[in-house]
Structures
1.
Amino acid sequence: MLHIIKKSPYESSAFSDAIKYIGQNDDVVLLTEDGVYAVKKGGKFEDILKNLMQKNAVYCLLADIKARGIQEDEIVENVKIIDYQGFVEKVVEHNPMTWA
Amino acid sequence: MLHIIKKSPYESSAFSDAIKYIGQNDDVVLLTEDGVYAVKKGGKFEDILKNLMQKNAVYCLLADIKARGIQEDEIVENVKIIDYQGFVEKVVEHNPMTWA
Amino acid sequence: MSGQEKTKVMLVCRTAPYGTIYEQEAIEAMIMFGAYEQDISVSFIGDGVFSLKKGQDTAFLGKKNFSMTYPVLIDDFEISHIYVEKESLEERGLSGDDLIAEVEIVGRNVLKQKMNEMKAMLPF
Amino acid sequence: MSGQEKTKVMLVCRTAPYGTIYEQEAIEAMIMFGAYEQDISVSFIGDGVFSLKKGQDTAFLGKKNFSMTYPVLIDDFEISHIYVEKESLEERGLSGDDLIAEVEIVGRNVLKQKMNEMKAMLPF
Amino acid sequence: MKLGVLVKEGPYMHQAIETAYNFIVAAMEAGHEITGIFFYNDGVYNRCSTMEPPRDERNIMKLLSELELKGVRLIVCVAAGKRRGIINQTVCKVEEISGLGQLLELCIASDRMITF
Amino acid sequence: MKLGVLVKEGPYMHQAIETAYNFIVAAMEAGHEITGIFFYNDGVYNRCSTMEPPRDERNIMKLLSELELKGVRLIVCVAAGKRRGIINQTVCKVEEISGLGQLLELCIASDRMITF
């Protein structure tokens, strides 16, 4: 499954609800819209993401991190940045579920 | 101040943001709409409410607890139930701030 | 659709009733989907479990009490399964006795397996 | 309004930019309010602090980058104060150096005192 | 007391306008004056005149119009309304279209300003 | 691959329709087929024809109509649209008004169903 998370993890339970459903190794996470705030180094969700990435890939959407002023060196290591083409590829590879 | 909280504390940061701003003894809390889920005995927010009520009054809106099937005996002790008339009175007594 | 396999679709209900319209419009979808002879299931996780709470009385709000629909979803509207996540119930101080309908209370891991079998998941 | 005391109003910004329109429409309010010669302040708490993050580039989104407005709110649009809550910044791994505008970074207790002085608070 | 109201959410999707309506009715019954209801953000959708909710649901547009008949000012923000297509004459029931300054005027003229 | 799209949020208020639009453009460029966009909940507001956003903002109604010219089906839910006043002929640009069954048909006809 592709878990698309689009709400800020600081504001909404979407992030915390979603990561409880990441059970298999082939589950991947895509952070979009305000969901990208989870990737910020030094933020509250850095350790949760690092722990998650031991088994599961985490992606974030380029347009959304750019808009929010998050620079590449501010992003937790190993989080992969993809564009809308990459977003489409992930949806082709995995069945999507949106957490809003 | 009258802190009106209208989002579910399980879903939104409105509740946790608001209670950090309850500083004075004359601050009171009114739970409306999905905010009323905080009052449920045995729920995650029971202790937080009890702690808060040592200094500050907490009200919840009758119409909203009724609609959500929360019975009076399921409500954390000392939370006061008010109707829309009571809501108006609280706004008259305190300057309101809505946390959504 | 004769001869074809039924399509498995799950409505994933994550929002509380009344505060927003999502749950009400999710029910409207459940009712319509039942008529299509596919394999439709509904799951309640997070605040979605509040939708099934017994004793809802909306007279003071002036709104429709749509919780009456849940008990008849399986028999009257041909929904295949209603799943409720056990962990979400517990976190909210609720148990099966608090619920309005006969539902399948399942652990998160079981529900995740069900999701893996779906062709489509529609979040509400 | 001569001879009368100015009305103190605070826009309380609690939402992140771009994901919803609240922050953008809050800015439109700040710009208009400035023209009325009242005492208007703006506070950023919770996810609202993200609105002030440096380096926003919305070209990939195809949306307007409205963060440019913040640095000129006080001088050009006669907003009296811009407060940012220190605790919310820290929780998000941000400091004053990350912010686009000269703002007053204040602790929650100080901001609470400011709120107590307001005639009206408008949440966004 | 003079009470001003700001509505930031649209009809049906959020309970906000319903809570606002019930609050306003109670306030008027208690003898308070409503200085006006300002519709901002998605709140402007509450004045869409073409709403046709099912019979067993309240028609929010009409309920608000009843308040207007009782003398409550309904003010729709021009910028928020234009963006969303809700101030076109053929589309919507809008009595007073105004700029954001009117929201500040409500703050000035009211003893309390409450947001739904 | 055949991709179906469900849009649950209104324009401007939420970024959902903008992400959906950018996703759909990228998917079509990559050669995938969009089986349809179903507008539900506040998503129906995306088809309000009277939108007049400021010049430096995208007109979402028109962007979607451009997709339609490229052959993408736009389907507005009749129940959600009626409730909100968005399927009246004089008000809104609606090509296909349909029941919720069409949403299920999209699930059946698509390899993937994605919600914005």
2.
Amino acid sequence: MSEPVQVKFFARLREELGVSSLNIPAEVVPDLDALLDWLVKAHPQWQPALQGKLMTAVNQSMTSSNVALQPGDEVALFPPVTGG
Amino acid sequence: MSEPVQVKFFARLREELGVSSLNIPAEVVPDLDALLDWLVKAHPQWQPALQGKLMTAVNQSMTSSNVALQPGDEVALFPPVTGG
Amino acid sequence: MRTTAIDVRVGSDDFNVQVEYDALCSHNTDDGAVVFFVGRVRDLNEGEAVHSLHLEHYPGMTESVLQQLAEQAAGRWPLNRVRIVHRVGDLHPADQIVFVGVSSPHRQAAFDGAAFVMDVLKTEAPFWKKETGPDGTSRWLDARQSDTTLAERWR
Amino acid sequence: MRTTAIDVRVGSDDFNVQVEYDALCSHNTDDGAVVFFVGRVRDLNEGEAVHSLHLEHYPGMTESVLQQLAEQAAGRWPLNRVRIVHRVGDLHPADQIVFVGVSSPHRQAAFDGAAFVMDVLKTEAPFWKKETGPDGTSRWLDARQSDTTLAERWR
């Protein structure tokens, strides 16, 4: 069995979902779009929060396109950043 | 007898002229142009140095026009500034 | 080829401005210009009184984004040293949040390098601020369009 | 109406960055942004090795020009504190020459205010530098067109 894809949530999104991270079998989330579909299907109550303006990082690099996911990838979803 | 006009020279210009300041009777230098004419007439050897690119301040304010001079005024002539 | 000395730190510890400045300057007679920025907690933000500020971040990614930012700045401007320190955790008004310091032979390069790091840090480094008011209510800050606009000028 | 605290000093004494920074920050919870610039003596300038640097100035006018510059910056940007220190006399490589520090509620105002003061100081404050090389020969520095160009963007 291959490594899962790990998904992390931060800040307001983490609070809204009540979850900071979860693992998903890599086979069911071949790319980012599939991952988002999976999250909403598995947790319908998350839909409003996941439809907000979010940023996405794959393996700690920001991405704005629908990249393919590999077993062991780390995906992070979070609100626009506000540091500095 | 009224106060003279005081003229100050700085930096490279001061070194070239060999003088840091001098007083001129206010009557003979009604304005900045007259002051420069007077300096060159009184000290022909200063002409090359005084024809270089210079900045002028009257009473410690930079000026680029031919302002009228009053008794007691302080005029300064100096090369473009290089501080900071 | 210029080698830029880069130092990036993320953590709850406070920083000392003189120590950071000395690290930019020590044994450095190449750089005539040092520019630094310090971001601090205000007691009033967007019209709301601030009692405390919690800074959350994405451990690992923050350090790597800040390192990349420093490298990008060093690639665009002749900077010999770049230092970035960003605090996380609980802070209060007047506390220091972030330090960005650069040194360069050239004044404008130092100003541009420091402004670039701050502008892009504000829009790309994974930090999030949650403010708590004097009545105990908390709110996550929203990203500001003005920060996006400032960052876009470096594209 | 904002009252900006302005401090201007000209003299041969060295300055301490932490002291100046603390003066910008102490009892100040209004300002989230501090930017400062330090100009230092390099050991190489325009391709010439530098052994020492003499800074001449026009006593009285220098202080008044720097004060006016600080006031102009405070009139253009929301700066609560502005500090300018400029040294004169004999300096050596790595010595500090000039400090410009500003604090503001807003980051871009702080960057612009500090850059404005430095750019206009470079072209309007009556200081002159004379460099001495390792062989003992001295030369007055010429003003640079690049400094004039930087100052003109604030017109």
